[in-house]
C-alpha cells in the first residue's frame, strides 16, 4: 500500500476548499440575481421554503398595527398597495402585451408603448391598482409583467393631531406616537405567548388581526379644538397656536391640536421646522404662573406643627431652598418627563427669558423661568389634582386581535405615584388658582399671561412673544385641564391676539366637558381595561373626602343649554346604543335585531328633548368601518 504524501493531502484539501467557496459564491450570486430580476419567482421559492404553522396570521401580525382613538376611530393604518411593473428584456413581443395592459390598467396604449421603449430595464406601469385589476393581470400571465406588493401607512385624519400621531417611513416611526410604537413592536414581535395566557378585553369586535394601539385621544373633542384653531389658518411666518385637553386625574390627553400643522401622508414635502411641537418648546414662563409656582413653594416650605396649614394669603415669606428644589423635581418642573409622543424639539433651548427694564423686579427665587408648556401643564395639574404624579400621555393600551377577539398585551393607563406633594396643600392651591384666575363656564377658572424670550441670531437679539392660558374645569375639583399656547416673532404682540386665545379657551370648555362626561359614562363602550375610569371621578387623592361640596345647579343649567347631537351608532349593538342615548331625554324606536345598520336622524343632527330616534338593526353585520379599512383586504 502506497502511503500518500503529506504535501499531496494538503493540496487536495485546498482544492476542496476552493471548490466549496466557488460553489457558495455562485449560489449567492444566483440568489441575488433571481431576487433582483425575477422577484415573482423568488417569492415563490421563499414561499415554498418557509415553514410556518399559521402563515396567514403570522404574516398579518408582522404588519404594523392600526392606531385608534379611544372610540376605535382610525388614526393610522397600514394597507397593502399593489403595483405593476415590467422587465422589458423578458418580454418576447412588446406589441402583444401593450393592448391587454392598456385595457386592464386604463392607460392609453401609446403611453405604455412609450414607456416600454424608453430603454430602462424595469418600467413601473401603474401603482395602487384595484383588486379587480390585480386579478386580471394575474389571469393574463404576461411574461415579463409582474405585481409588486408593499404595505404603506395611511393617516385618514391628515393634519388633525399630526404632531401627536407622527409619521412613518419604511415601516419605522420617525415622530410622535408612531415612534413610541417602534418600541412596542420590538418588544412584542417575538412574543411567543399564546392568546390563552392573555386577558380577554373585548369579544366580537370586527377588525384586522394583529397588534393595535389604542390612544386616549377622542376625535370628537379633537375636532372641536381643530375648529377653534381654524381662525388662525393664515398666521404670519414663525407664529404658532396650540390647544391641549388633558384629564386631571390620569394625565390622558384627549385633545391635542396646533397650527400650522402638516399632513403625515406626505410629510417629506414639509420643512423640518414645521415638525417642532409648540407644547414641547421652551418658552419664558408668564408672570402669573411664576407667582403661582412661587406660592406653591412657600406653602410647601411651611414648618410642620400643631397649628395647621396657614392660608396662602397670610403665609410668611420663609423659604427652604432645598425643599423648593425637591418640589420642582416632584412637580415635573425641574426636568422633562418621558412622553410617549416624542417630538423633534431641542432638549436644550438657546432662548432665555427677557424682562423689560423695571425699577424693582419680583423675587421668584428658584422658580424656573424657562419651561415648556407641557412642563407647566404637568406641574400645575399635579398641584391641584390631589398630588397624583400624572404625566401627559397619549397611549392607552396595546391589544392583540385574533378572530374578532382582543387580548391585552400592555396597558399604559397608570396615572403615576400618589402624594408627590402634601395632599393637605391641594385645597389651598385650588383656592389660590380661583383667586388668581378669571371665571369661566362650568365653574372653571382661567389663568393667563404673556412673556418674552430671545436668542442671539447673528449678533442680533431674535425676540419671541408667548401667551399661555390654562383653565381648570371645574376649578374646585378639576376634571379637565385645558391649555392654550400662542407664539409670535417680535418684541410685542397685539393684546387682541392674547384676548382672542383666552376667548377661544373659554368658548370650548362647555362642549368639551359635556362630551367628556358622556364618554366617561359609557361603560359598555370601553374594554375592561378601560372600565376603571368609566364612572368619572372628579379628583383622585386623599383630600376627596374633605373637599367642599360644590353647588352644581348653575353647572347643570349651563350644560343643559348645550346642543345635544345624534351620535354615530352604526355597527353597535342595541345595548350599547341605548346606553349612549339614555341621558338624552328622547324616545327610541327599534326595528329588527342584531347590530345597528341605519339610524334616524343621521349622526351629527341636533336632538331636542322628547325627540324620537329610530334604530334599524340587522343580524351579523360586519362593522362598516372594517369594510372600508384598506388593511382588511376587503376592496
Automatic annotation (TrEMBL):
Instruction: Please tell me whether the keyword Magnesium is annotated for this protein.
Output: no
The catalytic activity, as recorded, is: a beta-lactam + H2O = a substituted beta-amino acid
Keywords, comma-separated and alphabetical:
Antibiotic resistance, Carboxypeptidase, Hydrolase, Protease, Signal
Task: Return the SUPFAM superfamilies for the record.
Answer: beta-lactamase/transpeptidase-like, Penicillin binding protein dimerisation domain, Penicillin-binding protein 2x (pbp-2x), c-terminal domain
GO (cellular component) term, any one: plasma membrane
What the entry lists under Pfam families is as follows:
PASTA (PF03793), PBP_dimer (PF03717)
Q: Which domain of life is it from?
A: Bacteria
Question: What EC number(s) does the entry state?
Answer: 3.5.2.6
Q: Kindly give the InterPro entries that the UniProt entry links to this protein.
A: Beta-lactam/transpept (IPR050515), Beta-lactam/transpept-like (IPR012338), PASTA_dom (IPR005543), PBP_dimer (IPR005311), PBP_dimer_sf (IPR036138)
Where the record annotates domain PASTA, the positions are 560-619
Record-linked PROSITE patterns: PASTA
Task: Name a GO molecular-function annotation.
Answer: beta-lactamase activity
| One GO term (biological process) | cell wall organization
Q: Which family does it belong to?
A: Belongs to the class-D beta-lactamase family.
Q: In its UniProt entry, what is this protein called? A: beta-lactamase
Per the UniProt record, the source organism is: Desulfofustis glycolicus DSM 9705
